[in-house]
Design a protein that fits this description.
466 residues, alpha+beta, Thrombin, subunit H, Pdz3 Domain, 3 domains, 7-stranded antiparallel β-sheet, 11 helices, 28 strands, 18% helix, globular
């Protein structure tokens, strides 16, 4: 015990004797010692809401009760094994971004929800209408009717102005215990390997985020919304200090689309396949370090090609903001506006260049001819479309892809082996180049089917019947 006291005394002496660095500030009053986030919380917390989404699922009977032997004992009135409805509820958070009742939350909070309820900080409840939901960004915009009233709302800050080490607050409803505020710092920026949405570019924070925080606010020291809390890295379901938020600059594009009346987001399209620059590629090109996004291929109608870029060029910056990876290029493009002119910096043969690129929407080079397949065939239940750059962009397929793709699955035999985004290459030895070609082939009366699909770069061959 005596040794412990001496050690503590020695450490206190050393601390007192050590000179202060210029940037260190010692509290000079009781008020400074009692610094608090309370003023920011009072301004921002009322704009954070709880979001409850209810959906009804149908559970079907089966198993033993379908066996005639057991139905002799339990009755044959059909009550056993009858489809039953179950109500599933999801809980999340949301942020009011417009005083007239516009709310941003995560797509996964309200996905497939039929009844969505928003509970304000003052405990009033409102039914919410979904204005827009976008799975690719994992964002959704809701609207509640509050006539003759302005709700507390958060202004959107510039997430590009964030720096690692900045103080932030996370506000939400973790585990359904009620509104909770946690504090931390920005641990990292531009995280690209989270796997939550198509646009991998997240703010990482050590402010405690737990289940139920999804859709809640990440707030900076000015009381601005700089991110929507979306995911955590956890081994047991609780916070371990690694949380991720969608940057506010991405949120702005989604909110702007909803405010303009759009039901789906139209994103800028560059018509390029790109990949990360590895250390080997950087060395072969004489680069000091790996950076940028290497252009692997360009669509003939690509705005990058129109601006003079070529296959093998490395995109280094967009509008003055560095591009460190292929994912970051996707984010930078997604947060620009269609029709805007953007400065793109790139490297070619060791020389750094720049050009102006006019952002365009992915073109519809062929008619979609979207069709729901019906009839007695294994593709029944699939909704198919002709591929164009626009359709390929929506399905996250290569921009140069052609032919026919599955736009969605509505049940039927197709649900057993097909997925959204599958490209249909062949049916019974015939190449599929259009919806009309496929429809004609499916009219053939046959009991044997040989189907070739392309999924994620792999070709799958399926044999049915025969």
């Amino acid at each position: 015990m005596r040794f412990l006291i001496l050690a503590m005394a020695a450490s206190l002496f050393l601390f007192a004797a050590a000179p202060l660095r210029a940037e260190e500030i010692v509290p000079s009053s009781a008020a400074e010692v009692q610094l608090s986030f309370a003023p920011i919380v009072k301004r921002t917390a009322p704009a954070v809401v709880n979001v409850y989404a209810k959906r009804i699922t149908v559970s079907r009977g089966g198993g033993l009760f379908e066996d005639p032997f057991f139905r002799r004992f339990f009755g044959d009135d059909g009550s056993f094994g009858r489809p039953r409805e179950r109500v599933q509820n999801s809980l999340g958070s949301g942020v009011i971004v417009d005083p007239k009742g516009l709310i941003v939350t995560n797509h996964h909070v309200i996905a497939e929800g039929t009844d969505i309820t928003v509970v304000l900080a003052d405990r009033r409840e409102f039914e919410a209408k979904v204005l827009l939901k976008d799975e690719r960004t994992d964002l959704a915009v809701l609207k509640i009717d509050v006539p003759d009233e302005e709700l507390p709302a958060l202004g959107l800050g510039d997430s590009d102005a964030l720096e690692v080490g900045d103080l932030v607050l996370a506000i939400g409803n973790p585990f359904g215990v009620g509104q909770t505020v946690t504090s931390g710092i920005v641990s990292a920026l531009a995280r690209t390997s989270v796997g939550v949405s198509d646009y991998q570019f997240f703010i990482q924070t050590d402010a405690a985020i737990n289940p139920g925080n999804s859709g809640g606010a990440l707030v900076n020291g000015k009381g601005q919304l700089i991110g929507i809390n979306t995911a955590i890295f956890s081994r047991g379901g609780g916070s371990i200090g690694i949380g991720f938020a969608i940057p506010a600059n991405m949120v702005k594009t989604v909110v702007a689309t909803a405010e303009s009346g759009g039901e789906a987001i139209r994103r800028p399209w560059i018509g390029a396949e790109v990949q990360n620059v590895s250390s080997d590629i950087a060395a072969s090109l004489g680069m000091a370090r790996p950076e940028g996004a290497l252009i692997v291929s360009l669509h003939p109608e690509s705005p990058l090609a129109a601006a003079g870029l070529k296959r093998g060029d490395i995109v280094l910056a967009v509008e003055g903001k560095p591009v460190e990876s292929a994912q970051e290029l996707g984010y930078r493009v997604a947060t620009t506006a269609i029709g805007s002119t953007t400065i793109v910096e790139y490297q070619r043969k060791g020389e750094r260049r720049e050009t102006q690129v006019t952002m365009i929407a992915a073109p519809e080079t062929v008619a979609r001819a979207t069709t729901l397949i019906k009839g007695n065939n294994p593709l029944a239940g699939a909704v198919i479309s002709n591929l164009s750059p626009a359709v390929a962009d929506e399905l996250d397929l290569p921009s140069e892809a052609t032919g026919v793709a599955v736009a969605k699955i509505e049940g039927g035999p197709a649900a057993r082996f097909m997925k959204q985004g599958d490209m249909i290459l062949e049916v019974n030895g015939r190449e599929i180049d259009s919806v009309e070609t496929l429809k004609a082939l499916l009219e053939d009366e046959t009991s044997a089917w040989r189907i070739a699909l392309k999924r994620g770069g792999r070709v799958l061959k399926i044999a049915i019947g025969g």
